[in-house]
Amino acid sequence: MKSLIKFILFTVLLLIVYLQQPVLADTVDGANGAKIFSKNCAGCHINGGNIIRRGKNLKMKALKKYKMDSVEAISNIVTYGKNNMSAYKDRLSESEIQSVSTYVLSQAENNWPKQ
């Protein structure tokens, strides 16, 4: 009986460790997304704002209003640009675009906390 309990506890522990792996990968990716944002986006979008067009900011309310509240939608506008927003397909790799898009959405979900 004791060995069965130990086996179950060990299995649960392994499962917890296994399930934590994507979270760790996202944390590393988030750090990369933050660097990319700081280098390429913060000039116009500091703290999720927009110095060109105030209403078209990166806050969740605006992202939802303009149907930009998904990584896919953000990636698309980062890749191809739109209106005053430049395209970054020639400056950033696909993985960098995914990283920065994920970062933007996570920051918006957290109301752009001060770094």
Write the layout of secondary structure elements.
Layout: H1 2-40, H2 42-45, H3 60-65, H4 71-80, H5 94-109
Helix pairs in contact: 1-5, 4-5
Characterization of the model:
- The chain is built from five helices and no strands.
- By secondary structure, the chain is mainly alpha-helical.
- The protein has helices at residues 2-40, 42-45, 60-65, 71-80, 94-109.
- The radius of gyration is 19 Å and the shape is elongated.
- The chain has a single domain (25-109), classed as Orthogonal Bundle (Cytochrome Bc1 Complex, Chain D, domain 2), CATH 1.10.760.
- Helices cover 65% and strands 0% of the residues.
Compact summary:
The protein is mainly α.
The ordered H/E elements are HHHHH
Terminal Cα separation, in Å? 51 Å
Q: Enter the CATH topology name.
A: Cytochrome Bc1 Complex, Chain D, domain 2
Largest beta-sheet details: none
Shape: elongated
Arithmetic mean of pLDDT: 85
Keywords:
single chain, 115 residues, Cytochrome Bc1 Complex, Chain D, domain 2, 5 helices, elongated
